[in-house]
Specification:
- This protein has 295 residues and is of the alpha+beta class.
- It folds into two domains: 16-86, Multidrug-efflux Transporter Regulator, Chain: A, Domain 2; 134-292, Multidrug-efflux Transporter 1 Regulator Bmrr, Chain A (Alpha-Beta Barrel).
- It is built from nine helices and twelve strands.
- Strand 2 (49-50) and strand 3 (57-59) form a beta hairpin.
- Helix 5 runs parallel beside helix 8 (241-257).
- It starts with 19 loop residues before the first strand and ends with a strand.
């Protein structure tokens, strides 16, 4: 019997005629080779083939549409994580997600525009409060708190979620009204460059405070003295950093226009209110002050 001949499939020619090198694909998609390597690593735009020997990436013409979509989304400054969520969607779903992203972006831009206008007026010698500022009296309160240095919005958000988790874990008794709502004190600026600190606080009944503190080792008990607050109602929904800055500047402008206001050392704060307490207001931004001079 004649000896069988075995032909290796690795040596057989494979039709890659339509495939492009990374350089050619970069030219046609107008994405740099550096960007294409990054998008491959992130799973946004993997090449059709990677040569086993050389490691070179090759792409197919059909991938150009996806590449150009990514390029447009990046021009809109859509984060890469959001792009990764958009790409697998059906066209109508993707369009709706882009619409929501752009609506949020326009809202943020409007807030930044207002902040820029305020800054221009301030530098030009004008000092105006851009929000309605009201005042309220706050009683002395026993607080269970956790304080930490955090930098950046994501870490600040995670810190808040951690605090909410502790409240749910320990099921602390709820005080009535606005004075019983939990709040966050910004002892310093929280941004990518500045790490606060920030402190989350929950008022608790004074006669139970010691026992509750013993039950919640992650939280520190302290007493906050009675004071008056100037505040701005912020409404429902998430408030971005530019809006916070604008509200803070408005509160400072208001306090400067009030005769005899004595700002205390109690810290800028955001109070979070369930609708039944705040009558539709979910959060407000406040500056405490400890009194008014008589001069």
């Amino acid at each position: 019997m004649a000896e069988a001949t075995v032909i290796s499939t690795r040596s057989m020619p494979v039709d890659h005629a339509d495939q492009m090198s990374i350089g050619e694909f970069a030219r046609r998609s107008r994405l740099s080779a550096k960007a294409l390597r990054l998008y491959d690593e992130l799973g946004l735009l993997p090449p059709a083939r990677v040569d086993d020997v050389s490691g070179y990436r090759f792409y197919e013409p059909g991938q150009l549409e996806r590449a150009r979509l990514i390029a447009v989304l990046r021009q809109l400054q859509v984060p890469l994580a959001e792009i990764k969520a958009i790409l697998p969607l059906e066209p109508t779903e993707a369009a709706e997600r882009v619409r929501k992203f752009w609506a949020a972006t326009e809202a943020e831009n409007a807030t930044r525009r207002a902040l820029a206008t305020y800054l221009i007026d301030q530098l030009s010698g004008k000092r105006l409060a851009m929000y309605e500022v009201r005042t309220r009296q706050m009683p002395e309160r026993s607080l269970l708190c956790v304080k930490r240095n955090v930098a950046g919005f994501d870490r600040a958000w995670a810190f808040g979620k951690e605090f909410i988790g502790l409240l749910r874990q320990y099921k602390l008794p709820q005080l009535d009204g606005r004075a019983g709502a939990f709040f966050c004190i910004y002892w310093g600026e929280v941004s990518d460059d500045s790490d606060g600190p920030m402190e989350w606080c929950r008022p608790v009944p004074a006669d139970e405070a010691e026992a509750l503190a013993a039950r919640c080792p992650e939280l520190t008990l302290r007493t906050e003295r009675a004071h008056e607050e100037a505040f701005v109602a912020m409404g429902n929904g998430q408030v971005d950093g530019a809006a916070w800055q604008l509200v803070e500047q408005s509160l400072h402008a208001w306090s400067e226009q009030q005769p005899g206001i004595i700002e205390g050392d109690l810290g800028l704060r955001i109070t979070y209110l369930p609708s039944e307490v705040g009558q539709g207001t979910y959060q407000d931004f406040a500056i405490p002050f400890i009194g008014r001079s008589r001069g």
